[in-house]
Design a protein that fits this description.
The protein contains eight helices and twelve strands. About 40% of the residues lie in helices and about 20% in strands.
């Protein structure tokens, strides 16, 4: 069955060239010139498999569109398209729930390769009603939700992926690079030290909850999931 790709970009020529290329590669496409049109099309079409979302657009930009998408609990994979190269811009998109980032100018072959990688990764994350139960945390891999004694824990998408990865195999040590690749994708391996910030925020939230679960540091290597708080 053909995968459906939504292309959201205010540049008509680029939008249509991506659509033509993807259709020749065997994909179905939908196109939108801004975030408002994209969100409306997503309501009308329930079978969108992945979204290519430009950041800089008039009326409603990519960040606002992505935020509204994730607030509506829509987990459709999103690859951000942008001319911005600053690390802060990339990390902002990830914090809002993007699955990958492609910087313009890009080759259309790269777009297809990155789409395939994201679809492989996200399809394995979306198994229906798949849960992890560790200590006093219950993690729903299908809905990206974490519960502490029945109460929902407010985590960012990156924090969720880190916690779920570590909790699935408690005691196993993951390097920063491994966690970055899992949580953010191969495109962000050069930002692996930013994992420390996400882990710090995750620890703080677990501590504020009073959870006995902890993300432990293995000095010189990375992190693991354990049952006692460790700085």
């Amino acid at each position: 069955m053909k995968k459906t790709v939504m292309i959201v970009d205010d540049q008509d020529e680029l939008r249509e060239s991506i659509a033509t290329f993807l259709e020749n590669e065997g994909y179905q496409t939908l196109t939108a010139r801004n975030g408002d049109v994209a969100l409306r099309l997503l309501v009308e079409h329930q079978n969108v498999d992945i979204i290519l979302l430009d950041v800089m657009m008039p009326e409603k930009d990519g960040y606002v569109t992505l935020r509204e998408l994730r607030m509506a609990k829509d987990r459709t994979p999103v690859i951000m398209l942008t001319a911005k190269t600053d690390e802060i811009d990339k990390l902002l998109g990830l914090e809002l729930g993007a699955d990958d980032y492609i910087t313009k100018p890009f080759s259309l072959r790269e777009v297809v390769a990155r789409m395939k990688a994201v679809l492989r990764r996200t399809s394995s994350e979306q198994a229906e009603d798949e849960w992890i139960q560790q200590i006093d945390l219950k993690i729903n891999l299908s809905t990206y939700e974490v519960f502490f004694h029945g109460a929902r824990v407010n985590l960012t998408p990156t924090e969720f992926k880190i916690l779920a990865t570590l909790a699935e195999k408690p005691g196993r040590v993951y390097s920063r690079l491994q966690l970055m690749n899992i949580a953010m994708g191969e495109a962000f391996v050069n930002y692996e030290r930013s994992i420390d910030t996400h882990v710090s925020n995750l620890r703080r939230k677990l501590t504020e909850l009073g959870s006995s679960a902890a993300i432990q540091t293995v000095y010189g290597i990375g992190y693991r999931f354990g049952g006692e708080h460790e700085a």
